[in-house]
Amino acid sequence: MTVIDLVGNTPLIHLSSVSQETGVPIFAKAEFLNPSGSVKDRAAKNMILDGISRGVLTKGKTIIDATSGNTGIAYAMLGSALGFKVKIYLPANASIERKNIMKHYGAEIVETDPLESSDGAYLAAKEEAEAHPETYFYPDQYNNPANYLAHYNGMANEIWEQTNGKITHFICSMGTSGTFTGTSKKLKELNPNIHTIAVQPDSPMHGIEGTKHYASTIIPCFYDANLPEYFELVSTKNSYSMTRRLAKTEGIYAGISSGANSQGAFQLAQKIPENEKKNSLIVTILCDSGSRYVSDEFWG
Asked: Is position 177 annotated as part of the catalytic site?
C-alpha cells in the first residue's frame, strides 16, 4: 500500500449538537482524513491517474494547475509520491499554511493577484500550460470530467452505503463543483427523490475560502445547472461562527468551507416540515482541516 491508496473511504460523522438543535439527523463526510488532508485528494488522484493512463502525463513532465489551495496540496502530495514535479498557481492571499504545505511537498508556487481570486490563477496557469505543452501536464480541474467522476464513482457510493440508502438530502458548496456535481448525479441515479442543494456565499465579496459565488465567476464546463434544486445562501459571518462551533461542540477542527457546508445543512434542516423531520437524513461535506487556517483572524 502507498499513500495514494489511502484516498477516499472516509468516515461519516454525526453532527450531534447541530442535529439536536434542528431535530434532523445531519451527517458529514470527514474528508479532512484523506492523506493530504482534504476532499481534493479524490479529484487530484483521479485526474493524475487518468492523465497517466491516456499517455499525456509522462516521465519528465510537470503537473501544472490553478487552485485556491487544497487541490494544489493534493497535486503536490501525489506528485511527490509518483515522481512528478508540480507547479501551482494560486492567489497571493491564500493562507500561509497552505503555501508552506505545498512547498514542503516540493511544489513550485506562483502567486497571482488576490483581487482576481482563483479565476485569475486559473487564467494564468492556463496561459502557461498552453504556451509550453511539451513541458506540462495540465489537468485543468475546472474543466476535466475526471474531477467530478472521482465523486460520481467514489463519494456518492460511500454515502449511499454508509447511510444504508436512507439519505434524503445532499448539500455542499461549490468551487470547481466536482464534489457537488459528481455526488449529486450518482445519488440521483440511486434514488431520484434525494434532494440535492448547493451552498453558495450570499455575496460575490465573501470570505469563505474554497467556495465560489456562481453568479459572478467563471463556470466550470462540467457543472450541471439542473442538479441544484436551489442555492442555500450562507453568510461569511455565519459560516465562521459555525466553523468555530464545530470545534467547540462537535470536537471537529475543520476549515471554513466545512463551516459553510454545515451552516447550509443547519439552515436546510430548519426548513424541513416538522412531519418530515423524523424521516429525513442530511449529508454534507467537511472539506478540510482547520489546521490550514490557524493564522486566520476569524478564529478569534
From this structure: no
Active-site option among 184, 257, 258, 262: 257
Q: How far apart are CA 243 and CA 252, in angstroms?
A: 9
How many CA atoms does the CB half-sphere of 164 hold within 13 Å? 0
For this structure, is 173 an active site residue?
no
Give 215's DSSP letter. Answer: G
- pLDDT tens for 96-152 read 999 999 999 999 999 999 888 888 999 999 999 999 999 999 999 999 999 999 999
Q: Are 229 and 196 in contact (CB under 8 A)?
A: yes
Cell numbers standing for residue 150: 472521482
**C-alpha grid cell, residue 40:** 481534493
Which domains are assigned to the chain? 3-39+145-299 (3.40.50.1100), 40-137 (3.40.50.1100)
For the full predicted model, state whether its pTM sits above 0.85: yes
- Between CA 256 and CA 189 the distance in angstroms is 30
